[in-house]
Amino acid sequence: MASCIALKQHAVIVGKTSDTDWALQLDVMPVDPILIQQAGQLRQVNTLSGIDAALPFNSRLLAMLTRLLAQFEPGPANAPVLLVLPELLANETVLSAFVQQLRQQFPTLLSHGGCQLFPYGRSAGLMALSAARQLLESGEPVVWIIGLDSPVALLQTMGSELSASAAQQLISEDQQVEQVVWSEGAIGMALQHSDTGLSCQYLASDATVGNDVDELALAQLFKGAASQAGSSMAQLYMPDNGLSELTACWQPHYLHLAPVISKTSQLCFPAYTTGELGAAGGLYRFLLLYLSYSNASQSGLSLQCEISERLYRAVAVFSWQNAGSLSEN
């Protein structure tokens, strides 16, 4: 019986490019960010071209969704759609307003009874993947996961773009440039069961929300991942984007992964090349991980760790399995 997850379709648009292939190779074909000045702070941004910067946040997400869905043939139809959304929409009233607007623009997108919403930020992608696995195991032939977010949208209305000469002048005056690149993204994928594909050894999340950071939960997720892995991690995909606060969430607990870390284990930080994609970032990292296995540029076990702004966390361990083989590549 098929037990692996396989991609049937996928598409990616990010602030740096609307071309899916390019978006997935930004590490070798980089796109420079634009500098803006905001309250005396130099910030780096990338935004999708052709979308009005003055659009309200919800309308911007739907404009990105329109562009994303145009890349699929066929698109989602008569199948569960799991929407990965920013935590900004977690409030029930705010989420309801967004869904109402979405239904008006895309009347059939959420028509299947298995559709679900995940307004949990970066961690939402792995949380949606867990739900997708359950739907596939229950007999659904195809499950869609679509992620949307625009962290940069909150900066656009507050900052002014600088010319190259003006930016260089400020830099020469030793004005500090914020390390994170604020961007946006829309990512979609259709998943199905297959004898060959991604095998999940561990997938868990903690959605406890509070006013204080309690990273003991992340420590427990790392311990769980280490206990289920069984061998050393070849790759670890982390959400770091240049903000020290994000790294500080997981770094003190990295020691719990010591049993499965070796000299050859590699830390991967895709957000340094894509910019911060918010809720779409977790899906991007999962997609990059999957494609690295499928094109044989990656092997062994991989860990993916996601940390949302409001304390949502998720950790997964994956490997690749070929039909007729119980061993991972």
Describe, in plain words, how this protein is organized in 3D.
With 329 residues, the protein is of the alpha/beta class. The protein folds into two domains: 4-191, Peroxisomal Thiolase, Chain A, domain 1 (3-Layer(aba) Sandwich); 196-321, Thiolase/Chalcone synthase (Peroxisomal Thiolase, Chain A, domain 1, 3-Layer(aba) Sandwich), CATH 3.40.47. The chain contains ten helices and 14 strands. It has helices at 20-23, 57-69, 92-105, 124-137, 153-156, 164-172, 216-229, 244-250, 271-274, 279-294, and strands at residues 4-14, 34-38, 41-45, 81-84, 116-118, 143-149, 160-161, 177-182, 185-194, 197-206, 233-237, 266-268, 301-307, 313-321. A five-stranded mixed sheet has the order 1-9-6-4-5, with helices on both faces. It has a five-stranded mixed sheet with strand order 10-14-13-11-12, with helices on both faces. The radius of gyration is 20 Å and the shape is globular. 42% of the residues are buried. Residues 162-167 have low confidence and may be disordered. It comes from Arsukibacterium indicum.
What keywords describe this structure?
Peroxisomal Thiolase, Chain A, domain 1; 329 residues; 10 helices; five-stranded mixed sheet; single chain; 2 domains; 26% strand; alpha/beta
Terminal-residue CA separation: 20 Å
What is the percentage of strand-forming residues?
A: 25-35%
Query: What is the class of the largest domain in the CATH system?
Result: Alpha Beta
Low-pLDDT runs of 5+ residues are 162-167
Q: What's the order of the H and E elements?
A: EHEEHEHEHEHEHEEEHEHEHHEE
Proper CATH architecture of the largest domain: 3-Layer(aba) Sandwich
What topology, given as strand order, has the largest sheet? 1-9-6-4-5
**Shape, principal axes of CA atoms:** globular
Protein name: Beta-ketoacyl synthase N-terminal domain-containing protein
